[in-house]
Every structure is written in C-alpha cells, then in structure tokens.
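lol forgot to send this yesterday, sorry. struct tokens for the thing we talked abt
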C-alpha cells in the first residue's frame, strides 16, 4: 500500500499480489531475504537502491499484481481513501477468484478499522461474503 501526498492531487495506492498457495513459501522467502529498515518491508522507508531491489524481487515472483488508486484524495482523510481502495480491491480480487486475503499488518486499532470497513461492505452486499480476510499475526 502506498499513499502519495501531492497537495490537492494526493493519491492513495493499494496493491495486491495474487499467488497460488503452492508458491507461498517461495514468495515469502524471496521477500524475507530483502533488507529492511524496520520490522517489515516498507516502500516508504526504502532508499532508491533498496526500492530497485524490492521491484526486482516482486517482478520475479510467480504472482499477478493488482493496483487500485483513489484520487484525488484529501490528505487529512487517508483512512477514507484507504476504505475506498479496499472496497475496489476486494471487488477486483473477487473477479480473479481470490478466496483468501492477507492484508498488511498495521496497528491493532487500524487493523480493526480495516475489518469494520470490510464488515460494513459485506453487510451492504457491496463485496462478496465468501472468502477470508485478515491481517497477519505479529511475530515477536
């Protein structure tokens, strides 16, 4: 996921990699091998050289990639932009037949906010009810 604030032209990007579960360990190993500046691999924290390594690794994964964009967005309302992107992403992933989505772990409060958005969308029948959506457990 990525948000890019450019004044009134702020943009919120949300990306997903669709992988077959048979390729899960290969993909996970490739991403875990990349250097990180914190506890997780994050584009925002990466310098140009690290970003190039990330792009090369992601490009080499046995995956399909989907990106949705919310624009223009109010930088003060990032969570609304994220919610709109999550809604569209879930629709797109359903079209690909995705049955399990693991979202980027954020803070417990923000993870809960994501799940409330998803529950609301399911309740309004704006996204499919089948399939599982969640955040990974944090490892210590």
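and heres what i got for the seq, position by position
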């Amino acid at each position: 996921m990525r948000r890019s604030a450019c004044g009134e032209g702020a943009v919120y990007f949300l990306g997903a990699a669709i992988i077959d579960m048979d390729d899960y360990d290969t993909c996970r190993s490739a991403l875990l091998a990349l250097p990180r500046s914190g506890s997780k691999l994050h584009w925002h924290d990466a310098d140009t050289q690290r970003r190039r390594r990330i792009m090369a690794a992601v490009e080499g994964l046995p995956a399909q990639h989907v990106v949705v964009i919310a624009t223009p967005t109010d930088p003060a309302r990032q969570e609304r932009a994220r919610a709109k992107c999550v809604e569209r992403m879930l629709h797109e992933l359903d079209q690909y037949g995705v049955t399990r989505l693991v979202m980027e772990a954020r803070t417990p409060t923000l993870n809960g906010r994501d799940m409330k958005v998803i529950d609301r969308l399911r309740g309004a029948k704006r996204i499919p009810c089948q399939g599982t959506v969640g955040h990974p457990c944090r490892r210590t």
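Strands lie at 2-4, 10-18, 64-73, 100-102, 132-134. anyway ping me if u want another try
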